[in-house]
Design brief:
This protein is mostly helical. It has one domain (4-41, 55-204). It has eight helices and two strands; from the N terminus they run H-H-H-H-H-H-H-H-E-E. The protein has helices spanning 4-9, 20-34, 59-79, 90-105, 107-123, 129-154, 164-176, 181-197, and strands spanning 212-213, 220-221. Strands 1-2 form a two-stranded antiparallel sheet. Helix 3 crosses helix 4 and helix 5 (107-123) crosses helix 8. The longest helix has 26 residues, at 129-154. The radius of gyration is 21 Å and the shape is globular.
């Protein structure tokens, strides 16, 4: 929810943006810090919203969504790069912007380079397979730890899983995703970077819409 006067002041939704909501949020951050009359404004965060959304149910739809999100984030960061590490923009500039740039915009490139380097290291026998395996195990453990923390934090809210088996499935997915699915995710994001910087692609791409059947009756909700 955005105040109408602020929405108009920042120029509304940018029609040239891959996704306007992310870019709009960044634009509002810039507006607040660049205009003295808006210094008392803030963007509030609701950590426990009650809403539902459709999610990709096939690999093709998932790949398209992650490609789209990668392009949206990278485009907005490039447009607003003046905010990076700039104390003028408060926490958003000093911490928020660098975090998104390093861990969202560049992480897929860094990880892909790591896989390529690992292959080169093995071929040229610069190091042993044992060392590379230990590094991979460390990455899996660290990633699993972050996923587990996210699931357990959710368990403290009203959006927690009601059934124990569902909680166990989420915790298991945090570990199993590192063996194939995570690498597929990296490829989708790399394709997104290429599509934005080389092809200049803005459109969402392939998506699927599924119908929802109410558990209480036979009514189909679209």
């Amino acid at each position: 929810m955005i105040r109408k006067d602020i929405f108009i002041a920042v120029g509304g939704a940018n029609i040239n943006a891959v996704v306007d909501d992310f870019e709009l949020t960044v634009s509002i951050h810039r507006y607040i810090h660049e205009h003295k009359n808006a210094h008392d404004f803030e963007i509030a965060f609701i950590p426990d919203p009650g809403n539902y959304s459709q999610v990709p149910e096939t690999l093709k739809a998932f790949a398209s969504q992650r490609n789209f999100w990668q392009r949206a984030i990278l485009q907005s960061l490039l447009w607003n790069r003046v905010m990076a590490f700039n104390p003028r923009y408060g926490m958003a500039g000093v911490f928020g912007f660098p975090f998104y740039f390093i861990f969202e915009a560049l992480s897929a490139v860094v990880e892909a380079c790591a896989y390529v380097i690992a292959v080169i290291v093995l071929v040229l026998r610069i190091d042993t397979p044992t060392t590379l395996m230990l590094l991979f195990i460390f990455g899996v453990v660290l990633g699993t730890f972050v996923s587990i923390c996210a699931v357990l934090l959710q368990a403290t809210t009203r959006m927690r899983q009601e059934k124990t088996r569902d909680l166990i499935r989420l915790l298991s997915a945090g570990f199993l995703e590192h063996f194939g699915f995570h690498q597929f995710h990296v490829i989708c994001r790399l394709q997104g970077i290429y599509d934005l910087l080389v092809r200049g692609k803005l459109a969402y791409g392939y998506r699927e819409r599924s119908r929802y059947k109410s558990p209480t009756d036979d009514k189909i909700i679209t």
